[in-house]
Every structure is written in C-alpha cells, then in structure tokens.
Design a protein that fits this description.
It is found in: Cytoplasm, Cytoskeleton, Flagellum axoneme. The protein is of the alpha+beta class. It is about 30% helix and about 20% strand. The protein has 22 helices and 22 strands. A hairpin with a 4-residue loop joins strand 10 and strand 11.
Length: about 800
C-alpha cells in the first residue's frame, strides 16, 4: 500500500506555460528523498481544539468558475465548550429502607448510600457505603448514566432526566423504584449549590435506631459474655482453625459416653396438641421422638386422610427444647454465661457444654405429662412398648396405661354417615352383588388365593342334632345331620341322616354355601371354623342345631396337628433317599460323612432332616423320626456307621419295602466286610451294581445332565461332536477321544461313574460312535435311549 504524496517542501513544478509535458525526467525538482511517506491525517489540534488539515497547496488558486462566495450567517461558538471547565461532582448522602421478612432481628433495614451527580453530562452514580460483616453484597448500586425522572414525580416533558434541581438535603428522590432520602451533603456540594442560588438546608445526619447495625456491633463486642451455645461453637471454630483444644469437662465425657452407648435408641410418645383456639384450628395428634444419644426432640405429624392439610413430614426438626422456668420464660434465652452460672446448673470451665439443666430430658417425659414446646402445649397420652420397657428397666418407672386423649379434651368423635349396603336379593353371590354396589365398574369378587391353596381339601365334619322349636309339628329332636365345613372358602353343607320309620327322607338338607349369622349388636358375619364347638348351639336360617361331636380328622385340623404320613409315603422317601445316595456318592463312607457322620461319627435327626432338604424332598419331622427309628438298632436316637449302612443297603428292613425296595439300586460292600474290622483297600473300593432298573434310571439321569450342560453352553450337536472327536464331523469317535474331550475341551466336571455310564450309552459293546448315532442319542427322548422305556 502506497501512501499519498503531499506537496513538495522545496521547489515547484514546471510552469504550465512552458508546455513541458509531465513525463519522467521533465520534473527536475522531483527528488524522491523529499517525499513524505507517512500516512496523512485530516484532523489536527490547534489551541486545544481539533481542526481539519488542508491538503491543498497554500498558493493554490482555484479557477474562476469554482469560486463561489457563501454569505451564510453562522453563529460563532466559544473557543472551549462549557463541559471542559465545569467538571464538578456533587456528593449527597442518602438512604433507603428495605423491608425484611421473617427475621427475628429486624423488620426494616437501613441501607446507606452516596449519590454522585456529575455536572458535565448530568449523569448519576449511586454507591452503597460498605458495612463490615453485613453478609450482603455492597458497592455500586446504580451505575453512572442519565436517570429518567420517576413517572410519579414528573413536572416537565416526558424525557425529563434527574438534574441538580431534584437533589437537595431533605428531599426524597425515586431512582428506579427505590425511594432515597437525602440527609447530608459535603462542603463542596453545598458551595456549588449556593453559588447557583439554591438554598441548602442544614444536614440531617443518619437516622437512629438501625437495628441491624446495632446487632452487628453487639455481636462484635460480646467477647466476654458469650452464652453456652456460642462458647461451644467458638470451641469448634478454634479447634478447626488453630488446632487448640481446651480441657474436656466431666460433663463432656459423660455426654460422649451417652452418645456411644445410646446410639440409635429413640423414645416414642404420642401427644395431642389442642389448636382449636385459633381460627380453623383442630386437635392435632403428633408423634414425639426423643433421641437418647443427644437429648434432642423431634415432632412428627402422621398423615390424616381428608384432613384438609398438606402432609408435613416434620412439624419440628430434631433439636434441643429449652425447659420453661416457673415464670414461663426460657431457661437461658439471650443470657450470658455468668448469669447462667448463678442458677442451679453447673458449668465446669469457660468452654461450656450444652446445659442439661435448661433443656428437656427423658425425666420430663411420661404419659399424662404436659410439654411446652416453643409456645405450643403438647399432652402425652401414649407410648410404644419399647419406651415402656426402657423406663421400667433403666428408671424403674412404670408409665402406666395410655389415656384417652379425646376424653381429656372433651371431644366427641364425629360419626360420618355412611349408606348401608342394600340387602341381598338372592341373585348370585352376595360378594358379587356387594362389589357391584360399591363401584360403578363391575368386577368379579376377589378370592383369597393364599387361604385357598393352604386349606385346599381340608374339610371339618360335625354331627348335629336339631333343637325342637316351640311350635314343632313333628319330633325335631330326633333328626340328625352331618355338617361339612370347607376351610378353603368358609362354605358349609348339611346332609340329613335318614332314620327308619321317621317319615323324613334323608339327603341334602342345605346346599353348599356361605351362611351369615346375626350378631348381638345387629350386624352379621359369615360363620367361621372357630364358631363350631362341641356342645354349642348354632342357628341356621331360623333353625337351631346342637353340635354333638366331630371326627378325628377335624380334631387334628382344629388343634393344628398334621395328618401323619402313610407307610407308603415312608417307603417312597427311603427309596428316593437311597437312589440319591447311590447317584451322588460312590462309597458309603462319603455318603456317611456328607449326611453328617463326620462330626460325632453318627447321624442324628437334624442331620437327616437337612439331608432331605438338600435333596429338595418334602419330609416332615415325624417322617424323618420314623425313618431314624426304623434303622436305630440300639435305640439311642442316632445312627452309627453300621446302622447307616443298613439304612442305605437295606438289610432286614429292605423286606418291609416290598417291590420298591427291590427296585432300588443298592450300595453293597464286599462279602468279606464285617463293618467292624475291614481292610482299608476293600473299604475304598465299594462297588456299585450296574444291573437292574436302578442302573437304567442312573443312565437316564446322567444322560439328561449331559444334555443340560450342552444346552446351557448353547452348542449344536455337530459342534459338540467335532470338539469331542478333534477331527472332521464325519470321522468316528472313540472312547479315548470322548473322555479327553470331556475333560480338556468342554471342561465338564463329571465323576468317573458318570463318564462310564456315558461311554456305555455312546459306545455300546466297545463300538465307535458315528455322528448319526451321536445325534440320535442327544436329540431323541431319553426314554427311547438304550430301551429305557
């Protein structure tokens, strides 16, 4: 970028009259060294004022046709503008009142400010005076700019701005909704206003009664008269900042012990708060929790439906409640530590603990006691069982029975009128009709499925005799009935027993249904099992019946005694137990130790019950005791090793199991074993019989387990065959590769007996297994494998 060239400082261009063309070389005074290469500007400062700089040569005379005379009268302004000489700032002291809501210290706060008025451009700046420890942001309140006059104070045009005329001592000026009262000016401002001819009143000074400033000053001064709470707070601050710790008082030690000993222990009381003296007040039932660890109290209000009040989780947060003195004043509210030491309470050192003498403790609580909690009166009328037990054991105080809080406050409970359900019209069940009456949407009655499943098949049977009525035509006392009561749905049925030459046909007297009985208070309820007692009289549809007796099954059901299992059930339990032992344990010693014989070298009743539970068998305690007694030869209540072998192998007791015992797979020992002195080598090689129906069942279970493991790994038949064989899918698989694949590739933790069973299935008579044979065994039903039908 090339700078513009100005006129030459020396020499002139060649005159035009010589007719020398302006070509390079014709201008002999065009010296490059005399050129000005700096950027030009159009403004310059002369005599303190910026003026335009002309780029025309001073000797230049424009042509005649360009010479135009301008005779316009333009007023000449002063050399310097007034704002350059009138740079004054007027300073006014002012304040405004800020309302404070929900504060125990003050209701209105005095905010001190300084209003700066700049005369050069009539701008206003408002700055709030700093106040130490005020806890609020201070500084510039309104930034410097022209402030429009408040609409309520306008006297001129719409664009009227705040000026000097609006500011003076004793004048209220509104700036953006805040009403400032000017109370003071400095000497320079006063002289300036008086020079303008404005009368300035005397300074008023700051108003008195600033509650917040007095509170801050009092807080800063009260070093030697701190209360016990403030001293405790000061103690924690000193420890946190400087690490200083004063001597721990005995009260503090006791308080720490109590905190750890009573951690989590809460005393719960129920209290009533009579708030009816206020408009829309009511009797409020509260729950008061007293925490023993730090003697704090929490007030809760249980939710009440349709009370018209929102649910409040905590009426009073957990805190210590000061005890009221006889003159109904708090124990130490706004009192100093020295004043508190004059009372009966004890203070060990200057760093005080929370005084127990001035707060509510567990000794102030009890049924019938009246508590004053922050001006609210609470009457304790009940407590929980845990609180009663604490007072009785720790304090030796019996709290007594609970009191009627409604009667204490003379409140009669309101009876809410409710419409009575209409009588049943006999169509359908009463539950179905009542459900349609209670709701607009018809829903089937709900059945108690838990009761139905628990009492399925349980029937109570009673023998009845009709009680003769006063106007009986026939001999009703000679009529006998059988009542059947179903526990699953509380329905009953009555059947009459026919008697010869009575003229009355026997049969169904009352069909199965639920029957209601009228109570003495006029209400009605369905008959339950506890309503049937031998010797009692029951009334069914205006007919009275006397219960004569009940059968043995009914006696057991009502007394809670379960029906003993039949001998066939005991036999089945023994058969299943033997099959599980043979399948899981290859040697008798392993089965004996697994059941529990490794503890005391014997198996007791509890060990046998636990073993049945591990097999997921439903075995009653009486059944397990029966099995134990069957094989307990010495009648000592336990089974030693010889008796356990007899239970597993089924020596003389196997004859009692009929065909079921003969079909089980037995764990047999070598013939030379005597169970009292046997060789260790023979003991470790107890063999399993591989013939009979039990071996077939073991083969089924082993194959099913192998299938489940393959299915859990989400593997296909061809993939399993290839992994077990270790070659192409069409190759033949031998027992060695099968055994190696199960252990090293598939990592199946199978027992040796289970592997041998699988080898018998996949490799019959030692033949190699093809993919087709392998697929047929895995994918066909297990009953069809090897003829296990």
């Amino acid at each position: 970028m090339t700078a513009k060239l100005g006129y030459m400082s020396k020499g002139t261009f060649a005159p035009h009259e010589k007719n020398i063309p302006m070509l390079p070389g014709n201008n002999f005074h065009d010296d490059p060294l005399l050129r000005r290469g700096r950027a030009t500007h159009t403004l310059d400062i002369k005599q303190g004022t910026m003026v335009a700089v002309s780029t025309i040569e001073p000797t230049y005379q424009p042509p005649a046709y360009k010479r135009i005379e301008h005779n316009v009268d333009v007023p000449q302004r002063e050399t310097t503008p007034p704002w350059l000489t009138q740079h004054n700032v007027l300073r006014f002291n002012a304040y405004y009142l800020e309302p404070i809501v929900e504060s125990a210290i003050e209701t209105v706060r005095l905010r001190k400010c300084v209003v700066y008025f700049h005369t050069e451009d009539n701008t206003v700046l408002v700055r709030e005076l700093p106040q130490p420890n005020a806890g609020m942001s201070q500084g510039v309140l309104i930034r410097r700019h022209c402030i429009p006059v408040d609409p309520s104070e306008k006297t001129g045009t719409d664009n009227e701005m705040i000026g000097v005329a609006h500011l003076n001592v004793g004048v209220d000026v509104t700036l953006y909704g805040k009403r400032f009262h000017i109370c003071d000016v400095d000497s320079n401002t006063r002289n300036h206003l008086e020079a303008m001819g404005v009368a300035v009143p005397a300074n008023e000074g700051w108003p008195e009664g600033d509650q917040f400033a007095a509170y801050l000053a009092k807080k800063a001064r009260r070093v030697g008269t701190l209360t016990a709470q403030d001293l405790e707070l000061k103690r924690h601050h000193e420890y946190g900042t400087a690490g200083r710790v004063s001597m721990v008082s005995p009260e503090r030690i006791q308080q720490a012990k109590r905190f750890y000993q009573a951690n989590g222990r809460v005393l719960t009381f129920l209290a009533g708060w009579d708030d009816r003296d206020r408009p829309h007040g009511d009797l409020r039932l509260m729950q008061i929790n007293y925490y023993l660890e730090d003697a704090t109290i929490q007030v809760l209000e249980p939710p009440v439906t349709n009370s018209g009040r929102e649910e409040c989780k905590k009426t009073l947060v957990r805190q210590r409640i000061p005890r009221k003195s006889p003159d109904n004043k708090p124990a130490f509210k706004n009192e100093s530590l020295l004043d508190h030491l004059k009372t009966d309470a004890h203070q060990h050192n200057t760093f005080g603990v929370n005084m127990d003498g001035g707060y509510l403790t567990e000794d102030d609580l009890g049924i019938g006691r009246v508590l004053d909690i922050h001006g609210k009166t609470f009457v304790l009328y009940d407590c929980d069982e845990r609180t009663r037990k604490y007072y009785l054991q720790e304090k030796g105080v019996d709290l007594g029975a609970s009191m009627d809080i409604m009667k204490y406050f003379n409140i009669v409970p309101k009876k809410i009128p409710r419409a009575a359900p209409p009588p049943h019209d006999g169509i359908g069940s009463e539950e179905d009709s009542l459900g349609n009456w209670q709701g607009l949407l018809m829903k089937p009655p709900k059945r108690d499925h838990v009761k139905w499943v628990k009492n399925d098949g349980k029937i109570l049977t009673f023998a009845l005799r009709m009680v003769a009525s006063p106007n009986a035509v026939i001999e009703e006392e000679s009529r006998h009935f059988i009542l059947s009561f179903w526990l699953e749905d509380d329905s009953l049925q009555i059947t009459e027993i026919s008697s010869r030459n009575s003229g009355i046909m026997g049969g169904k007297y009352l069909a199965r249904q639920k029957v209601k009985q009228i109570q003495p208070d006029g209400s009605s309820k369905y008959l339950q099992a506890e309503d049937f007692q031998v010797g009692e009289i029951i009334e069914l549809y205006s007919k009275k019946f006397r219960i004569l007796q009940m059968d043995r099954n009914t006696e057991k059901l009502l007394s809670g005694i379960e029906d003993p299992s039949s001998p066939e059930d005991i036999k089945k339990l023994i058969v299943v137990m033997r099959e599980n032992m043979v399948t899981k344990y290859p040697r008798v010693q392993e089965a004996f130790h697994a059941v529990g014989g490794h503890i005391n070298n014997c198996v007791d009743l509890e060990d046998l019950i636990k073993f049945f539970r591990t097999m997921n068998l439903e075995c009653k305690r009486e059944d397990a005791k029966t099995i134990l007694n069957m094989f307990d030869n010495d009648r000592n209540g336990t089974l030693d090793f010889n008796e356990f072998v007899g239970m597993v192998l089924g020596d003389e007791h196997s004859l009692k199991l009929d065909v079921l015992a003969n079909s089980t797979r037995a764990i047999r020992l070598a013939p030379e074993d005597t169970f009292t002195q046997y060789d260790a080598h023979v003991q470790d090689n107890i063999e399993l019989a591989h013939t009979g129906s039990l071996y077939k069942k073991q083969a089924k279970n082993t194959l099913e387990m192998f299938r489940d493991k393959i299915h859990q790994r989400r593997m296909g038949t061809i993939e399993v065959f290839r992994l077990l064989n270790g070659s192409t899918p069409n190759a033949l698989m031998g027992p060695e590769s099968f055994r190696r694949g199960l252990k090293d590739i598939l990592h199946m933790l199978l027992k040796e007996e289970e592997i041998r069973v699988l080898e018998d299935i996949f490799f019959p008579n030692g033949q190699l297994c093809t993919l087709q044979h392998f697929s047929v065994i895995l994918e066909s039903p297990r009953e069809a494998v090897m003829g296990f039908a």
